Amino acid sequence: MEERYRLKQWPLEAGGEKELDAQSGQLVVLVNRGSGRLQWSGRSAALGPDSIALLRPGAAARASAGEQGLELWQLRLQQGLLEEISCPGCDLEACFSVVPFQCAVVRLNTQNATLLRRLYSMLQKETEQPDALAGGVYRRGLVELLVAGVLRCCVNEERKTALVGRKRLVVDEVFAYINAHLAEPLQLKDLAAHFYVSPEHLARQFKQRTGQTLHQYIIKARLSRCRELLCNGVPLSAIWMQCGFSGYSAMLRSFKQEFGVTPAEYYRQCCQRAREYPEEALPETKKSDA
C-alpha cells in the first residue's frame, strides 16, 4: 500500500508559493498552521487551519502564504488505492468521482480539522518509523480513516452549502421549469410545492430576482412563445393551447396589450418582414421581449 499514497509537508514563509499538481491521482491538502490562499482556474479561496483543499486527477493550483506563513500537509492518493481500500457497499472511488469540481477548498469545524491532522500525523510517524507488529495493517487502517474522514467532511459541507445555495438556485430552476411547461397550468402554489418551498418564499425571491411577479413572468413567457409560433406559421387556433392560455380571447387580449397589435396583425407583419428582410426573424413591436 505504501506505493499507492505519498505524504509530504510544505512549510512556506510569508509570501511564499507552492504549485500543487494532482497528476493522475487524488490530492488532499491539509493546513497545519498559518493562512494563505489557493488559486486555480481563475478562482481563489482562503486557506486556514480549519480548511482542506481537494484536487481531482489532472487539476493544478497554486498555494500562497499569508503574513504568518503557511504549512501544508499533502496526501497524494495514487490510482488504484481507493479501489483497494474500498469495501462492499462503500466504493470510495465512486464517492470521489461524484464530487462536482476539479479543485475546491472545504471548510471544516475545529473538531474535524483537528481529527484529520491527528490522523495525518499518526500516518506520517508510522510511515517514517514503521512498527514491526502489524505495521501494514495499522497503516492501512490510518489511510482508510483519513480518506473516510475527508469524504465525510466534504459531504457534510456540501449539505450545508446546498441548503444555503438553495435560495439562490431555486429561481433559476423555476425559469427553466416554466419555459418547459408553458402549455400547462402554472400556479404559484403548485410551483412552490414542486420545488419544496413556500409560496411566499418563491414569490419573494422571484420578485427580488426579476423585478416582476411570477404571474407577470409567465404571461410574458407565453406571449414570447406565441410570437415564435406565429412566425413559424402555426395556426392561431392551436397557438393559445400550446402557450397555456385559457382561450383564444385571453391570448388576444394579452397579446394586444403587450405588443400593441393583434396576433393576426403580427403574423402579417412577420410575413411582410420575412419577404423584405429575410435575414431578420421578427418584426419590431411596441415593447421589448419578455
From TrEMBL:
InterPro entries: AraC_XylS_family_regulators, Homeodomain-like_sf, HTH_AraC. It holds the Pfam family HTH_18. The keyword Chaperone does not apply. Residues 172-269 form the HTH araC/xylS-type domain. The keyword Cell wall biogenesis/degradation does not apply. Keywords: DNA-binding, Transcription, Transcription regulation. This is AraC family transcriptional regulator.
